[in-house]
Amino acid sequence: MMKLLYATVLALAALPASAAALAAPTVLTVEGGAIEGTYADGVRVFKGVPFAAPPVGPLRWQAPQPVAPWAGIRPAKAFGPRAMQLPLFSDMVFRSPGIDEDCLYLNVWTPPVTSEKKLPVLVYFHGGGLAAGDGSEPRYDGAAMARQGIVALTVNYRLGVFGFLAHPELSGESAAHASGNYGLMDQAAALRWVQRNIAAFGGDPAQVTIAGESAGSYSVSAQMVNRQARGLFARAIGESGSVLGLQPPSLAEAEQQGAAFATAAGAASLAELRALPAAQLLEVAGRPGMPKWSIVTDGVVIDRAPLESYRRGLQARVPLLAGWNSQEMHAGALLGQAPATKESFAAALEKLYGEQAADAARAYDYDVLDAARDLASDRWIVYGTWKWIDLHRRVAPTYRYYFTRPRPGADGGAVHSGEIEYALGNLDGNKVYRWSDDDRRVAATMQAYFANFIRSGNPNGAGLAHWPTVDHPAPNVMRIDVTSAAFNPRDRARFEFHDRQHNELHD
């Protein structure tokens, strides 16, 4: 205790006298022991805080286990390792030291001064297709949200074959007779950690918002039907993606994939598979023809098809803010090298939909370039996001956005992931683009909407255009750009077409 007090005094002594009177400590006690963070960019930062035991050795492909206590004060001044992954996405910039199976760490940014009022909490899950990404990426940095009076966290979770492998022997050794979804279990474990520890950072465990983009948004929608996460959050934000856009394999199907992977890795048993070096498993998983590891309908974490859960209203009934960008996928993804003409679009529809091509043409009967872009986006990620919003609006307040601001110098609309820096207030963390005053105005607007929602479950606030819930009469979708306003997108026919396609395939 004296060491803790001494370290706190030293930290405060380094601040200006006026700040020291109000400054919160950089040494805190959490599960496992004491940690020491820093003051950086006007906020307190705690990096690389373990929320579960390293999932290595016999804990590989096991549910996350409690942190082992440590002695003394553990430094929390550097990001922990990121999860095992291949270099898949060129836009990812990491501040973590490298990849490692020992990856279950989170990062916390808090306001620099103490407050008698408990603060709202944001827990952000990174994107990357459940195969890549990291909580250290500058675009997810929590400092800007901390300056808004929010305790912000980013969370690492197991990815790819390490996070989502199912296998008959894994199911056999499990008390629940299931396997897979270890990455989702990691996220739920982090949320339980938040419930038990966030008060030490000034946060309110009753005011937790979970959020994420792309695979992070898929994760948010999955945690809303994960019984392990029930009651651990009060609000949810999804940016471009939901589990309703997937058809998660059954446990039996996923076990077959896992058994085939073990054979490809040269392992005749689970024990042999666990004994293989992590780098070797990653190499095998990256070979052509290997499965794309993802969420599994395992009967436990995901206890039934997510679409069924949402149709029955079984998800967490919390306020939801969700939406997508104007160019999640480009028209060329649908048309290939063909020019954007009515003839090339009709040919693409015929190839994709056959006898239903005429129905598709009616649903996308507008400018060919826009229609091709929208259809490519809808088929990939937009339809699933819309379906999430459309089903959830029946049980809780739901707000939908449409982000249209292109990055500086970009042609077309707002690309996939292009909203993250705006929403989280992190334009300056991305050095690739020359941000303009208009970009900063868009960022101020979007971050304000997000911060208001994190505080109250309602994005509206002073100085902002009114944002209705989606169950109000149109216009009720918030277009976010230099001038933001609610509008009526008139896009339901598109999504009802995909509903029919989805039902024919999966019902």
TrEMBL record:
Descriptive protein name: Carboxylic ester hydrolase
N-terminal signal peptide: 1-19
Keywords: Hydrolase, Signal
Species for this entry: Pseudoduganella armeniaca
Pfam families the record matches: COesterase
Record family assignment: Belongs to the type-B carboxylesterase/lipase family.
GO terms, molecular function: hydrolase activity
Entry keyword Hydrolase: yes
Residue span(s) of domain Carboxylesterase type B: 26-485
Domain of life: Bacteria
EC number: 3.1.1.-
